[in-house]
Amino acid sequence: MDLSERIIEVGDVRLSIAEAGAGQRPLLLVHGFTGAKEDFTPWLTMLAKAGWHAVAPDLRGHGLSSKPEAESAYTFELMARDMLGLADALGWDRFVLLGHSMGGMVAQFMACDSPARLAGLILMDTSHRALDNLDPGLVEAAASIVRSDGMAALAAILAKQRGPLDTAANQRLLAEEPGYAEFCDRKFLAAAPAMYAAMAPAFVTAADRLDSLRALPGGLPVLVIVGAQDEPFRGPSAQLAACVGDASLAVISDAGHCPQFENSTQWWEALSGFLNRLAPQAAQSAAN
What we know:
Number of helices: 13
Shape: globular
Mean pLDDT: 95
CATH class: Alpha Beta
Number of domains: 1
CATH architecture: 3-Layer(aba) Sandwich
Order of helices and strands: EEEHEHEHEHHHHHHEHEHHH
Largest sheet: 8 strands, mixed
Structural class: alpha/beta
Strand order of the largest sheet: 1-2-4-3-5-6-7-8
């Protein structure tokens, strides 16, 4: 059940993964924009003890994974292809998928592309459409800064202002949890400028995926998780829960965009409860 890390080649990229519980039921946990696998590594051994082969990768352009220099190397579709290729490399036919924020958007593309491969889907603080709380001009300005001066230059500017996801829960964690601010800074600075410049505008221009998601199998077990303070994602989360598969909605109190850190106890109860309810035959087929 020990946590380990390794590099797996998938197509034209090398993906860094953390994992625990190899040989058990497959569970893939995909982080968000400028995040990293470390957004989920604290829970991988707990998931392994519960019977899961839990794998958290760094997406392309993040963490220790490959960082192509061309902005054209970064799209939701390419990241979804990477994650399906990673499942292939791990020998997984069917698996349970969790996607957080941008990772939840990637997970939606994966689900629409290969619905038969999913034994369960968890969409966490994410949206099925473009985000309406972002100023397109400011997004493009941020992309221009990282193109010319890198991630550190943008980080210095963002440090002087509160962003759209900076909730009271996030401020509490920054103030009370030793090392959390540094953890967030490390993830942000490890992201590739080309990835940021390509993907940030995509959150403003993305087409609505809800109709495609409605076509997923009605019996697909789905859990939608959202922090109570994560206002930009509360509405989309409710729509996802109402329209996608056999879905339920878990609103995590006293939490914003990262409920796994901001209210770990309630988040874990929602996640583990859903995983425990998955039909044994579905879980078993996912492991084969």
